[in-house]
Specification:
The complex is a heterodimer of chains A (297) and B (300). With 297 residues, chain A is mainly α. Chain A has twelve helices and two strands. In chain A, 74% of the residues lie in helices and 1% in strands. The N and C termini of chain A lie close together (9 Å). Chain B is an all-alpha fold and 300 residues long. Chain B has a domain of 171 residues: MetI-like (MetI-like fold). Chain B is built from 13 helices and no strands. In chain B, helix 5 packs across helix 7. Classes of the chains: A mainly alpha (297), B mainly alpha (300). Chains A and B meet through helix 1, helix 3, helix 4, helix 5 and helix 7 of A and helix 1, helix 2, helix 4, helix 5 and helix 6 of B.
Chain lengths: 297, 300
Amino acid sequence: MRRRSRGVPERRLAWFMTAPSILLIALVAVWPIIYAIWLSMHEYSLVSAGLSRWASPIGLGNYIDAFGDAEFRDAAVVTLIFTVASVALETVIGLAMAMTMAMAFKGQGVLRTVVLVPWAVLTVVTAIMWRSMFDSNLGFVNTLLGTNTVWLGTEPQALLVMILADVWKTAPFMALLLLAGLQVIPGEIYEAAKVDGASAWQRFKKITLPLLMPALLVALIFRTLDALRIFDLPKVLTNGANGTTSLSLLAQRTFQENRLYGEGAAISILTFLLVMAVSFAYIRLVGGNIRGMTEDR
Amino acid sequence: MEAASTAAEPRASARDEAKTKVKRGPKSGGTPWWVWIAVAAIVIFCLFPFYWLVNISLKTSADLSNSDLFPPNPTLDNYSSILRNDDFTRALLNSTIVALVTTFLGLLVGAFCAYALARLKMRFKFILLGVVLSISTFPQIAIAAPLFRLWSDIGLYNTLIGLVIPYLTFALPLSIYILVTFFREIPRDLEEAALVDGATNFEAFRKVIVPLAAPGLATTAILAFIASWNEFLLATTLTSSREARTVPVAIAQFTGSSDFEIPLATQSAASVLISVPLILLVLLFQKRIVAGLTAGAVKG
């Protein structure tokens, strides 16, 4: 390899170049989390909130309260149902979309652009869109189905609309990730399987799925992380009414509207821990990738 | 990406090819009919909800209560009403400033870090990139509560800079992660040549890598911009009036300019208006965006 003496030594230059990022991350991410943990272990009286810094330490009291609180348990259940249902639907639809896009045909570029449209639409706009489609007066869904349902005003239906809206917005993203995975599978494998008389289903099960697995897992975890922290959709669709309050929404309402900083922070930290657990699985999975990206060549 | 296709390294170039080239099936001449049905289904799935939004944004208040798929008496009233709404135009300005500044800072700070991670000898690289990646998966809610209190104390509550700072928690990791992938695809020979010619490491970065990585920088900028433009949780938690409200918050809180107006019509007009620039970005930079989204997601 090379050895030079000009300029700042390489290792020191590396620290200079990474220092601003490390400082920023410590300042805007690590430190607020530590402060949130501190908040979550204190109790603020409603009267003094915002007026003074009066807070009494109560250890894990806020966490114990949260677990005993039906609202928290409901929000946890809603978040989990939402995550499992939306990620499962997105995977199936995304895979179907990716496999269609992988076929050779004219206008593929146009199709990719079309698929990016839901991805580019703001989540808040997505919520407004789906709220209007399912609106019992203005929407077309009731007309189409011949029903008279007040979708967002009924308990399981509101969550269903939220799931569908999320699937619309993110299935295309899933499709693009999976398409990238499909395109690294060499076409010759399929040719060989065909010559050996494998049916389309056998080719899908024995070739596509196993070879797509790494990309599929990354996409799955990516989406799970996003779904677990869902906030925008329930906030704008229903403001959490009718069984749509997610953990993030509950936490935000607790500390902002009700000014219960300690409890709100505790729910935030619990959400954070849940997301981080999935995140570790993700990092382990792409760990090989990161190593590949950082090793000296 | 252009630079990457000439990469001497087989891994990078094979992967690049896979990304941009269309896989040719056995019968590339004729496409079976059922593929076209699937294509039509995808197009309807992706575009119809947006069409519906455009449809209601063009309806008069009177027509709004029927669920026609075409506006019977198309009108631009909702658009002119939203453009005369000061809260909305101010939010547009706020969003633009916040998204541009966040993107610029994320890219500037991130590019240095990404170069060091991609090229320079350094300890703890693996840990650093792992931390960066885990920060990008942070749920925003975890920093919302402490920042809400802290910003009130130090006067950053309801300010644009009070939004830019926490937005760096996602803009910076995004920039670093994507740029590391792009920097590594630039052939090492070019820098080596500059170094042999007597350039310092930093000069090699500034004069060789940065210009070559321009497409990667553009991709990162687009993704960071869209992410900042889309952010809602922190924007709604850390602002309280039009001085700092961004577009998503303004639209979500829209109640119509008068009691007689149904907010959904103006809300949908505003939604269409702010979606158009984003859809244009997608039309123009489809390839870049897909490359950025899938960077690092596929094991190369």
